Amino acid sequence: MLLLQALILGIVQGITEFLPISSSGHLAILQNIFQLNTNYSVFFNAMVHLGTLMAVLAAFQKDIKKILLEACRCVYDILENIKIALYNRKEQEAKRYRMLISNNYRKLFLLLFVSTIPTAIEGLLFQDLVAAAGSNLLAPAMGLMLTAVVLVVADFIPAGGKIPKDVSLKAAFGIGICQGITVFPGISRCGITIAVCLIYGFNRKFSVKYSFLLAVPSILGAAVLELTQLPGSGISAAEAGVSLLAAAAAGIVGYLCIKKMLSIIQKKQFRFFAVYCFIIGAAAAAYSFAI
After folding, report:
1. Cα dihedral 44→49→52→53 (10° resolution)
2. Can you tell me the distance from the alpha carbon of 50 to that of 211, in angstroms, rounded to the nearest whole number?
3. 93: helix, strand or coil
4. How far is residue 118 from each of residues 172, 174, 223, measured CA to CA in Å?
5. How far apart are CA 221 and CA 9, in angstroms?
6. What is the pLDDT, as a whole number, of residue 120?
7. The Cα angle at residue 168 between residues 167 and 173, in degrees rounded to 5
8. H/E element holding 57?
9. Sequence-ordered list of residues with C-beta below 8 angstroms from that of 176, at least 6 positions apart, any chain
10. Backbone angle region of 2, left / alpha / beta, with phi > 0 → left and psi within -120 to 50 → alpha
11. So what's the pLDDT on residue 52?
12. Are residues 197 and 2 in contact, defined by beta-carbon separation less than 8 angstroms?
């Protein structure tokens, strides 16, 4: 792969991961056009995914620190409750247990954990089908057009007001199922998860934040899964270096796009992205039949 091609793919990944236009669809289309070696494209995808993961960690570092801190405190409280249960049983006492979900950050951690479960299961179940879908242009083209339909619907969903304390575990699980479908190229993870969050009545700003925080385990899982699919190293030092540069480009551009997306969601501008997805999807479909 040429350095210019790698940088183009990295920048495209950074832009499309955090805008509702499907990073997987754009990468699949460009990699088919560039005719990349399969093993190298798997390694490259893993690196640029890690680049966009760094963007999320940087943009939401305060929230992520608080979530992890409260998760650790929650585990500590669970252990303390076990001690209290043993003490109460032994001494025939009724000592009060610690409250586990005592604030929004603990509830947010629980919601993200529940959403990740069905996404991970679907990712493992569909990995062979996803690999086959990404090897041609027609599948990502259809995925992009499906994304366009979802984005048009999202523009007409009225604003909700739910924050973590108002969201049920059932809603979190439903969001996770819908995110799992986005492993197929062309279906926007960002677009689908934000739309589903809005359907469940989330506050518009919280919908974006939840979608991006949910990207942390999903992007990390995708990168690990892609790396485990490599039959052997087979990657030269030059290819690894080019991939790291592309990952850096994806991370920098992705960070800027996260900030942009936070303002877009407030203005209900999904229909413009829907038009874009439909045009790119139709062009990719036409090109697949032409070659």
Report:
1. -140
2. 17
3. coil
4. 10, 8, 17
5. 20
6. 93
7. 110
8. helix 38-59
9. 114, 115, 116, 117, 118, 119, 214
10. beta
11. 92
12. no
Both structure tokens of 259:
């900030």
Along the chain (291 residues), what's the average pLDDT of each consecutive run of 10 residues? 82 89 85 67 82 93 96 95 92 90 94 96 88 82 94 87 94 96 91 93 91 92 76 70 91 89 75 92 87 67
Mapping DSSP to helix (H, G, I), strand (E, B) and coil, where does residue 10 land? Answer: helix
Tokens of 186: 């062309």
Entry pTM: 0.88
Q: Which two tokens stand for residue 91?
A: 């001494």
Asked whether the CA dihedral 254, 71, 223, 185 is positive or negative, the reply is: negative
Structure tokens at 168: 């049920």
| CA 246/CA 102 separation, integer angstroms | 42
Phi, psi of 247 (to 5 degrees): -65, -40
Amino acid at position 28, single letter: A
What local confidence, expressed as pLDDT, does residue 39 receive? 56
pLDDT score recorded for residue 233: 55
Helix (H, G, I), strand (E, B) or coil at 35: coil
Distance CA 25, CA 254 (A): 16
d(CA 242, CA 25): 21
